[in-house]
Amino acid sequence: MSDAPKKLHIKTYGCQMNVYDSERMAEAMGAKGYVLTDNPAEADMVLLNTCHIREKAAEKVYSDLGRLKPFKDEKPDLKIGVAGCVAQAEGAEIMRRMPLVDLVVGSQNYHRLPEMVEATDRGERPVDTEFPTEDKFDLLPQRPLSARPTAFLTVQEGCDKFCAFCVVPYTRGAEISRPVSKVLTEAQKLVDRGVREITLLGQNVNGYHGAGEGGDWGLGRLVRALAKIDGLERIRYTTSHPNDMAEDLLEAHAEEPKLMPYLHLPVQSGSDRILKAMNRKHTVEAYLRLVERIRAARPDMVLSSDFIVGFPGETDQDFEDTMALIRAVNYGAAFSFKYSARPGTPAADRSDQVAAEVADARLQALQALITEQQRATQAGMVGREVGVLFEKPGRLPGQWVGKSDYLQAVHVAAEGLAPGVLARVRITASGPNSLAGELIGA
Ligand code: SAH
Ligand code: SF4
Ligand code: F3S
């Protein structure tokens, strides 16, 4: 037997929570002697951390598994694992459909991954998609040194909202919040390792209600406590539901300079009729009022959103109402999707599904409007001074790339830049996807 470390390739689909989970799984397997590789061809184990949110995302997993077949034929002891939300939703079905898969691990069970890999050594094909009573976060190993100045930190998981189109309440289970002390300890460790910006993650992160001193803490209070950590310069959070934007969180935006002025606040639709059918439990009017309050607290706030077009029953008028909402809010960015009927969700059974061509045309129109707003937001940055946290070298010599306070990519060519440097930058030019600037006082 050779002493060379085993190699693990992880492919991550879906949202940032999966990115966070993939890092934690890499660490769990690292403790078992596995090192990461970008190249599936040289891997001893391939792990797909999957997403179930839309049909395309879920089906891609099966085609990617098919593509691993030649590797497995060549190297029969290659281990193939499926993790994440498709694993959670389909479980043993994956094993039936894909004989090359060795293990299936649901999103709450990653701490069990090393022992599941041991079971595959004994020729077993373990499937674990139970929602465990123990806390996976407690059982995963410590996070190792990271060279990156930014990190994700999951503080909340699961969703109790049950939007009529969405699989997340089923794949991630009920809402749970990690206790305040655990979050603060993990954040401090990240900062000790050079992290300067933390993005707090949760499916409904602003619904955070973690056990802390004196009772349950909301996200606003958690943010204020995190802001006291020396060396932590920036705090972000995602994703938020409009109904959970508490007053305390708005106040934190007004008062806490470390809390960055960019907020992802999905609305999905601008039609009250569709919002009701989606079970979003708020009106257009309530959302617009909330946006006003957010901008009163932090006038320079850049907002982004998610939109679904072609939800069952959506008429031309409903869609026009969505376009009107977008014009009223003026977004700095947005993600938009064609409705995808997901098995087991209430909307999937409706008889009034929208024709694909209609949904395609609406998606195009919506994306054109968002692109216009995004470009205008970018162009409006020219001449302004912003903070930039540098992350990596750019493509041109001497150039570095970082993110502005508003989460825009900014290119700067200057001496003395390095990952983790936070500098004041004057924006000199804007492109569709990035800005250029120069150091102030350099
Ligand atoms: N928890 C977050 C987002 C979860 S999923 C929130 O509530 O905002 C990310 C986005 O995927 C959603 O905001 C929604 O726009 C989109 N999405 C979810 N289910 C979908 C479906 N069945 N079809 C198309 N888009 C969907
Ligand atoms: Fe899905 Fe709605 Fe929960 Fe977001 S709030 S995860 S869209 S059910
Ligand atoms: Fe996808 Fe699961 Fe995230 S379904 S969007 S990976 S919570």
From TrEMBL:
Keywords: 4Fe-4S, Cytoplasm, Iron, Iron-sulfur, Metal-binding, S-adenosyl-L-methionine, Transferase, tRNA processing
Gene responsible for this protein: miaB
Domain TRAM: 379-441
Role, per record: Catalyzes the methylthiolation of N6-(dimethylallyl)adenosine (i(6)A), leading to the formation of 2-methylthio-N6-(dimethylallyl)adenosine (ms(2)i(6)A) at position 37 in tRNAs that read codons beginning with uridine.
Subcellular location(s) of the protein: Cytoplasm
Source species of the chain: Pseudothioclava arenosa
Entry's EC annotation: 2.8.4.3
InterPro entries: Elp3/MiaA/NifB-like_rSAM, Methylthiotransferase, Methylthiotransferase_CS, Methylthiotransferase_N, Methylthiotransferase_N_sf, MiaB_methiolase, rSAM, rSAM_horseshoe
Annotated Radical SAM core domain residues: 145-376
Comment on bound cofactor: Binds 2 [4Fe-4S] clusters. One cluster is coordinated with 3 cysteines and an exchangeable S-adenosyl-L-methionine.
Gene3D superfamilies, sorted: Methylthiotransferase, N-terminal domain, tm_1862 like domain
Superkingdom of origin: Bacteria
Protein name stated in the entry: tRNA-2-methylthio-N(6)-dimethylallyladenosine synthase
Domain MTTase N-terminal stretches: 6-122
Subunit structure: Monomer.
